[in-house]
Amino acid sequence: MELKVIWKHARAAALECCDGSIYETENAYRIYLNGEFYRETKQVVNVLYQLEPEKEYCISIEQGEEKAEISFCTEAQDYTVNVRDFGARGDGVQDDTLYIQAAIMACPKDSRVLIPEGVYRITSLFLKDHLTLELAKGAVLSADTQREKFPILKGTCQNEEKGKEYILGTWEGDACDMFSGIITGIGVKDVTIYGEGIIDGNASWENWWFEAKKIRIAARPRMIFLNRCENVQIVGITVQNSPSWNIHPYFSRHLKFIGVTVLGPKDSPNTDGLNPESCDDVEITGCLFSVGDDCIAVKSGKISVGAKYKVPSSNLRIRQCCMRDGHGSITLGSEMAAGIQNLQARQCVFLNTDRGLRIKTRRGRGKDAVIDGILFENIKMDAVLTPFVINCFYYCESDGHSEYVQCKEPLTVDERTPEIKALCFRDIQAENCHVAAAFFYGLPEQKIERVEMKRVRVSYAEDAVSGQPAMMDGAEENVCKMGVFAKNIETLVLEDVQVTGQDGDAIVMDGIDYLEWRE
User: Fold this and answer.
1) What's residue 519's pLDDT?
2) pLDDT score at 470
3) What values do phi and psi take at 304, rounded to 5?
4) I need a surface site. Which of 163, 377, 435, 470 has the fewest CB within 10 A?
5) Distance of alpha carbon 456 from its chain centroid, rounded?
6) What local confidence, expressed as pLDDT, does residue 276 receive?
């Protein structure tokens, strides 16, 4: 057993218990802070609160006879700006937006804005550089649901003289007028949002989710929207009941999300958990997702944005997270026109999601839509309908069922053709799956370059239900207990892959140029 400090600030720190466990330890362990009992937990990643600035701490953990210890010093902090001193009431009645915003704007550098216990009605809050925002235990930022009260971020600001544009608002990969997020950052840097509090969007089928496909006035807001931001850390908070995507970093870099909880009803539309879009250097550690769409979806825009700016999502690290009840646990695409590079997902748990490791793209994403350097490793799944999906015929758009998108015959490779290169899945166990063990379907004209599956175990639920393994035309809708299906792949490596309990062949292949198959 080893103990690591993976993040620290003036009044909080995040620890990781390293004993080989994934998300939770088998047995609970006790945390001691300077010799005093702090908490008993099974969480691998824990955030400690109510620390003091510039103070030495000794943290120890005990689990039976095993012990580990580490020391660290918290960071400095000059002042605390309490939003109550600016007129915020936190009574759930008064609109506290202006008072909290005033506290944010007045807060000096190297200080914090404190939101104490209470329910604070707000619309949108805007961040600034060098800001620390703490949501204390019992604090709830409770969002209004009247869209007319929210500011609108224009899709683009134009400079016709210089032929330039600046994207402010976005919706599913295109520039689009959108309501500002409950928390909005535009071009800010060095921001920390942390605490035990909650940001609640209060979305329901009576407001934001009603006729979700219609854009009324502007596109639905995100809970947290970060546009061209840098060095942002979000730690410990709970985000729930979002109007659309929960956390949406856009063209941003150097981001950390640690110990965050993201919640939404399973049937809530487009409520993805965390969607980095054209972002670089993103760490997602110790987070819990239970949402109505993809838990994590990595993106880089549709071709209108991706081909113009050519900013991929790159260098992403996902560890020690739990994904529940969503469409996909970790998804790449489908809006990925600038590509996705160098993503590693390790030590995660997927529970009751429709698909586990999910890659979705389609013709029309463009030649810059290249997925490469993807590793999924040491992952446990339970009751996931289809654990592995690579779908190059994703149909969820207005032209998604067109002959161009869905044609299974080879078309000409041109500037609209996406590409999938190297993918590796290893040390993965999937139990109680239902529909298919894996469904890989590449483009015939631009085959998936390389897929490796090593030390993979898949078994099925006794009462498995049927379903569609991938959202594409031609995929059967009543599949149950299918094995591994692989089509249109240049190199397929299968090493110690065991599928048990399937109906039919364990592995079905077509259009595989080179196969390495080792027991």
Assistant:
1) 83
2) 98
3) -60, -30
4) 163
5) 24
6) 99
Which positions ≥6 away from 301 have C-beta within 8 Å? 170, 173, 174, 277, 278, 309, 335, 336, 337, 338
Amino acid at residue number 371: I
Model pTM?
0.98
Neighbour-count burial of 53, counting CB atoms closer than 10 A to its CB (0-12 exposed, 13-18 middle, 19+ buried): middle
Q: Low-confidence residues of the chain, pLDDT below 70? A: none
**CA-to-CA distance for 104 and 120, rounded, in angstroms?**
15
Q: List active site positions.
A: 293, 327
> What span, in angstroms and rounded, lies between the C-alpha atoms of 478 and 505?
17
Distance CA 329, CA 349 (A): 9
Q: Choose the CATH number for 2-73 among 3.90.580.10, 2.60.120.200, 2.60.40.10, 1.25.40.10.
A: 2.60.40.10
Domain boundaries, given as residue ranges, for the chain: 2-73, 78-293, 314-519
Q: How many CB atoms lie within 10 A of CB 22?
A: 18
CATH class of 78-293: mainly beta
Q: Report cis status (omega within 30 of 0) of the bond before 334.
A: yes
pLDDT of residue 40: 98
Q: For residues 511 and 487, is the Cβ–Cβ distance under 8 A?
A: yes
